[in-house]
Specification:
Elements: E1 6-10, H1 33-40, E2 48-53, H2 62-71, E3 75-81, H3 99-118, E4 123-127, E5 132-133, H4 141-158, E6 163-167, E7 176-177, H5 182-192, E8 197-202, H6 203-208, H7 213-222, E9 226-231, H8 249-261, E10 267-270, H9 279-299, H10 302-311, H11 314-330
């Protein structure tokens, strides 16, 4: 399977990777979207990139972007409308109390869907980073959820040929984001009730939400709503966006097992922020980890894994992890 994986990456690893402490970025080099795409083209095994609408795309540059992407041999695997990085979204986009803001948010999403079509891309990422609350008694939870359902459905109906991938995250920038867990994302997808609406699992977001990513993947697959994946790692307290395999090696083995078991054929996209590392090398290292872990799974007897799962034998599960990892490290 590892030979057929579609590897993608978000663009930040190929830019300046700024954070709120070093606004100019750690690389000391400010790159344009075209320059970042050209850097992405240097990554071995990379097939696609994600673009953020209004950050990397506009009606004026879309033809140039499309040509550069084609020239470096990549595809656009996702377009993400920016619904978090401008002050007007501070109190929500889809859930804003101001009708004008809600309409602007919906308009931006529709524009991103149009750009996706023009770029031969079939998916957008809806991440509701500012749709949430910070204090108790600050939000009307029911009204906010109704607005999420209505706005998402309107966008889904606008371009039924474009997949709308709901990306969940427990917190940041709000202390509570309405779509914070796999369960809430699945609830939203089911209430919107459109075939082109599903869920994006960001592994780091799942970990920070206290989830076991493998379980989230299995349940979303069961509902045929697992549309897309972001790969990264963290220490489960914050969205650190570290390289794959940095912290949660056993969890990664199990989640990749469940991707194989459920027949996932979609993108394996890296959403990492290598602030102080070389971005190209960080992406290549993450891809190497995913490939290596798939190879490790291929060496294990799948019937044995299924038998252990059926029996619920924790000591056997530990044993197969131990022996496979140790034998792999010695090979």
């Amino acid at each position: 399977m590892e030979k057929d994986i579609l590897f993608g990456s978000c663009l930040p690893p190929f830019g300046d990777c700024a954070d709120r402490f070093v606004l100019s970025g750690y690389s000391g080099v400010k790159r344009t979207p075209v320059e970042m795409i050209k850097r992405a083209g240097k990554v071995k095994s990379l097939s696609g990139i994600e673009l953020v609408g209004t950050w990397h795309l506009s009606d004026n540059n879309i033809r140039e972007i499309k040509k550069v992407v084609e020239d470096v041999g990549l595809k656009i695997c996702m377009v993400t409308p920016d619904m978090w990085a401008r002050g007007k979204w501070g109190k929500g986009g889809f859930t804003s109390r101001e009708e004008k803001i809600r309409k602007e948010a919906i308009g931006d999403v529709k524009a991103s869907m149009d750009w996706a079509i023009e770029l031969d891309c079939d998916a957008i990422d809806l991440w509701f980073g500012q749709d949430g609350y910070d204090y108790l008694f600050q939000a009307n939870y029911v009204e906010a959820w109704d607005r999420l359902v209505e706005a998402t459905r309107e966008c889904a109906d606008y371009r039924p040929e474009v997949k709308v991938c709901l990306e969940y995250k427990i917190k940041e920038p709000r202390t509570h984001i309405f779509v914070g867990t796999a369960g809430k994302a699945l609830l939203l997808a089911k209430e919107v009730n459109r075939n082109n609406v599903g869920v994006l699992v960001d592994v780091g977001h799942a970990l920070a939400a206290g989830e076991n990513p493998a379980e989230s993947i299995a349940l979303l697959s069961r509902s045929k709503k697992l549309f897309y994946l972001h790969f990264n790692d963290n220490y489960a307290t914050w969205d650190d966006d570290m390289m794959v395999g940095s912290v949660h090696l056993p969890q990664y083995l199990e989640l990749l097992y469940w991707l194989k078991r459920t027949g996932y054929k979609g993108w394996h996209t890296l959403d990492i922020f290598p602030y102080r590392e070389d971005g190209v090398r960080a992406v290549e290292e993450s891809i190497a980890w995913i490939k290596g872990l798939y190879e490790l799974l291929n060496r294990i007897d799948y019937q044995r894994i299924e038998k252990i799962i059926e029996e619920g034998d924790a000591t056997q599960a530990s044993g197969i992890l131990r022996t496979s990892i140790l034998s792999w490290s010695q090979s």
